[in-house]
């Protein structure tokens, strides 16, 4: 009889489930099933459906999902379930789950309390893209040592063709295309290479070898061009995410400043004594 009544209540609930669970505003959670003195509400059901990734539209599917939720609470609230909750591993798992849920709720409330507005987005856009940046087209000759690099520079000073020297003398993979690196932004190269390229004028080559972790380079900067900033609407989602992450970091930082955190050294195993 009890199971029958539960199924009938669930069926009645299912008739209005779509509007009841999906409604954005609820005056108060509505009780669907009582297990002893514990009440399962439509909020429990909606969260369970979301967490399991199931959202049945038919009455039978909703009844099945509700029964599954009832079984979960019934076991958890039973004597055996309460005893299991005291198991160290289960207890730790519950603490982690609770911490994650509370932290996620904290993030949501912080973002809801201070939504990102257009002015903030525009200010960050201007700061990030005020300088459009520059691209460079360059060739290089990679040598194993500084002496070989200096010898190549002497040949260039004497009128040798850079691409030909790169094909004949470079040890890098770009030798097959005369040392051509194509177009690149400065941050795409290792810092020493980028800095040397920036210092050059278009059409000029480095007069002293440039050392990186790959070896010694002689660089020819062929061309350069200004980069156009991306469209505001294109980068708007990324800018909004960046501002949100900063807000959350600041909020968490404030909590951290008022929290004592102590890293504990793990217990060291005691070596067995030898007789």
Please tell me about this protein's structure:
The protein has helices at 2-15, 17-22, 42-52, 59-77, 79-85, 88-113, 118-129, 146-157, 162-169, 191-199, 232-257, and strands at 31-35, 38-41, 134-143, 180-185, 204-205, 210-212, 215-226. With 275 residues, the protein is an alpha+beta fold. Strands 3, 4, 5, 6 and 7 form a 5-stranded antiparallel beta sheet that branches. It has a two-stranded antiparallel sheet with strand order 1-2.
Short note summarizing the structure:
The protein has 275 residues and is an alpha+beta fold. The protein is built from eleven helices and seven strands. α1 crosses α4 and α7 crosses α11.
Domains (count): 3
Number of helices: 11
SSE series: HHEEHHHHHEHHEHEEEH
Poorly predicted regions: 18-25
Name of the top-level CATH class of the largest domain: Alpha Beta
Average residue pLDDT: 89
CATH topology of the largest domain: Chitinase A, domain 3
Q: Structural class given helices, strands, pairing?
A: alpha+beta
CATH architecture descriptor of the largest domain:
Roll
Task: Set out the fold topology.
Elements: H1 2-15, H2 17-22, E1 31-35, E2 38-41, H3 42-52, H4 59-77, H5 79-85, H6 88-113, H7 118-129, E3 134-143, H8 146-157, H9 162-169, E4 180-185, H10 191-199, E5 204-205, E6 210-212, E7 215-226, H11 232-257
Helix pairs in contact: 1-4, 7-11
């Amino acid at each position: 009889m009890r199971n029958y009544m539960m199924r009938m209540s669930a069926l009645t609930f299912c008739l209005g489930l779509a509007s009841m669970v999906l409604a954005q505003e609820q005056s108060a959670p509505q009780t669907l099933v009582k297990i002893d003195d514990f009440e399962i509400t439509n909020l429990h059901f909606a969260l369970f459906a979301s967490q399991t990734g199931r959202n049945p539209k038919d009455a039978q599917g909703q009844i099945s999902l509700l029964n599954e939720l009832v079984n979960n609470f019934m076991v958890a609230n039973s004597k055996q379930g309460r005893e299991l909750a005291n198991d160290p591993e289960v207890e730790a798992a519950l603490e982690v789950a609770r911490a994650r849920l509370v932290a996620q709720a904290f993030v949501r409330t912080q973002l809801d309390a201070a939504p990102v507005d257009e002015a903030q987005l525009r200010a960050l856009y201007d700061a990030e893209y005020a300088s459009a940046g520059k691209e460079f087209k360059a060739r290089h000759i990679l040598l194993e040592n500084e002496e070989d690099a200096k010898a190549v520079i002497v040949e260039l000073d004497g009128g040798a063709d850079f691409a030909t020297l790169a094909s004949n003398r470079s040890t890098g993979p770009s030798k097959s295309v005369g040392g051509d690196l194509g177009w690149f932004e400065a941050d795409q190269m290792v810092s020493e290479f980028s800095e040397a390229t920036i210092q050059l004028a278009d059409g000029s080559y480095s007069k002293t070898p440039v050392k990186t972790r790959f070896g010694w380079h002689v660089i020819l900067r062929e061309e350069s061009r200004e980069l156009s900033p991306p469209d505001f609407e294109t980068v708007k989602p990324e800018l909004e995410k960046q501002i949100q992450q900063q807000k959350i970091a600041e909020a968490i930082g404030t909590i951290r400043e008022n929290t004592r955190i102590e890293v504990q050294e793990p217990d060291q195993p005691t070596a067995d004594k030898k007789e």
